[in-house]
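Sample entry (94 residues):
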Amino acid sequence: MGKRLRVKTDGTQIHKIHLKEDDRKKVEARLEAVALVYKKLTNQIITFEFIKTLAEEKKKKKIKKEGKREGKREKKEGKREGKVEPVKEVPAPK
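Predicted structure, serialized as tokens:
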């Protein structure tokens, strides 16, 4: 998704790789191996971070709002229909 290069005062470089939160389950097990291989090949440190995108946040908020709206609709429909009380049976006159 993105990357940042951080240079410390002693000259060492740290590469920060930003990955999507959705991909965490797919790649989390392999990240340590990737970091070790990268270190061996380039002699540089690499770290991975999972971040949430703005689109994901908006989508979650939208889902929450829709859920709340549905709950309110159900309550309103219940009020409109009203509670039906059972009719008391009155014995017929003799």
